[in-house]
Amino acid sequence: MRLLKKKRQKPQDDNNNDVTVDRDCIRIFNGRDGEWLAKVHVLEQNGDESTSDGNKNKRKRRQSRQGDITLVAECIHQLRIQDIDKDAARPWLLLAPLKKQSRMKLLMEKCTELGTGRIIPVVSDRTEGSAVLSLLGSAALETDQVYGTKRSSSDNDMSFEKLELQAIEASEQCERLSIPCISKDVGLPLPDEGLGSALWKVQDVVEQWAGGWEEQKRVLLICRERCSEENVSDGKAIVLPLLHALHSNNQVAFLVGPEGGWSVEEEALFDGICSKYNRDDDAPVKCVSLGTSVLRAETASILATGAWALVHDE
């Protein structure tokens, strides 16, 4: 829901025609049907309907309310049409959840504003177990042995529900019509049906992505440190500059490392799979560099998404 900022503001439709509204109209969107100009009606407990038409009536309604009320939005005019094709082409972001809530919220906010379509938490060798359990909430109580730590309730918890609220708020602020999907689903069959509510492991993601390319149709870009396009030895993968890879691929998914970076075993896995596709523009999995600096996980996520926005978000 977006409030009109000015009392006499006149929003325009897709043909740049002014739409006459009264002071109590709002702009609403649900992430699927575009943006609409609407008027709010309040349904009181006794079934009577009233319209928000002035401060005096608002004060009276506040005084008369003694329980829950129902708000109904009457759509008056469509302001913007949902671009389904554009939403489908938005980049995905796969990353290890961060332990600190403030850094995770910053990542969610900025990546939403820059156009991320789906955010998928995954588990790497150096992912902190407490961060994973904080994200999964009560669903992780049965998987303590998997992540090697016991869960304790804390205000620092960042559950899927909180991440979704953060994404909704960021979408409202930047006025994009779609809301990022916060999910554990990477669009591929689980390697082990027993995983259930657990997060995907980085190893399984990369292997399944390389093997299920025909189903995915989206290139997985593994974010690694520094470029190595020249003089690549046998068994090593070429690490392309990020912008070079983005110009060659429209639909992408970024795989960003955890705090502490990729482990030696994960680096070897990336080299083993990506070296098979060196200098192949149609490779399902590619290694990319975000520059010469070693970046924090949230900085790398924001930079990767921002680079996609510069190249593809017209």
Would you kindly provide a written description of the structure presented here, covering whatever features stand out?
This protein starts with a strand and ends with a helix. The chain is of the alpha/beta class and about 325 residues long. Strand 3 and strand 4 form a beta hairpin. The longest helix has 16 residues, at about 295-310. Residues about 1-10 and about 140-155 have low confidence and may be disordered. Strands 6, 7, 8, 9, 10, 11, 12 and 13 form an eight-stranded parallel sheet that branches. The protein contains eleven helices and 13 strands.
From the N-terminal CA to the C-terminal CA, the straight-line distance is 25 Å
**Largest sheet properties:** 8 strands, parallel
Unreliable spans are 1-9, 138-156
How many helical elements? 11
Strand content: 15-25%
Radius of gyration: 23 Å
Mean pLDDT: 77
> What is the ordering of alpha helices and beta strands?
EEEEHEHEHEHHHEEHHEEHEHEH
> Helix- and strand-based class?
alpha/beta
Gross geometry: globular
Number of strands: 13
Helix percent reads: 25-40%
Summarize the structure.
33% of the residues lie in helices and 20% in strands.
Please tag this protein with its features:
314 residues; alpha/beta; 8-stranded parallel sheet; 5-stranded antiparallel sheet; 11 helices; 13 strands; 33% helix; 20% strand; globular; disordered N terminus
